[in-house]
Amino acid sequence: MGVRMKFTAAVLLFINLFTLQAAPAAAPETLIFTNVNIVDTRSGNLERNMTVVIKNGRIDGIAKVGLIQESRKIRVVNANGKFLIPGLWDMHVHSAGGSAPAWDEKIIYPLYIANGVTGVRDMGGDPALLEKRREHIERGQVLGPHMVLGGPFLAGGKSDSQTIAVNNPAEGRQAVVTLKNRGVDFIKILSNITRPTYMAIAEEARKLKIRFVGHVPDTVSV
Question: Which superfamily does 88-149 belong to?
Fold first, then answer.
């Protein structure tokens, strides 16, 4: 099973969550799980007592047995017969709305990890709050999933903490440039924008090589 699947694997069935909350700076380059059970999704067979090697956040190798050379850059975890799966992703969340930040950081984010969700794509919200939460997670201050962020919505009307108003093509282009420079992972649009504005956003996003996603306006046909 020579697979290379993106992202850290999630061990299920009660590995102590707090042992996973080490600061990223101290994380080893290679993480090896021994004595794990995995499901071969090609055949549906259960493979017992396997060894899984993870390098730089990717599943690098799977074998029945393996020789492990001791190194400070290698961490070995004996799973003692527990199951291992690739980390799951929730591809549509909104975690910077009206809910209390402390509630999300103390309860919601750890619950993602407890259920094997190691990554989320946040589809729009207050960029300052989202960036702060992602920083807390990446520094190891909060136990939670990696976050891919879209930042504020692009929409017609007025701007607020979660929205950038784009009421004409020029505003649409400028919003894309601003968000690209801010470092968002993609652009999120709402449906209440004009067709010319939508087309300008699409063109600017393509020019700057950043994805844009969201709600297609009624004025834009398939």
Answer: Amidohydrolase (3.30.110.90)
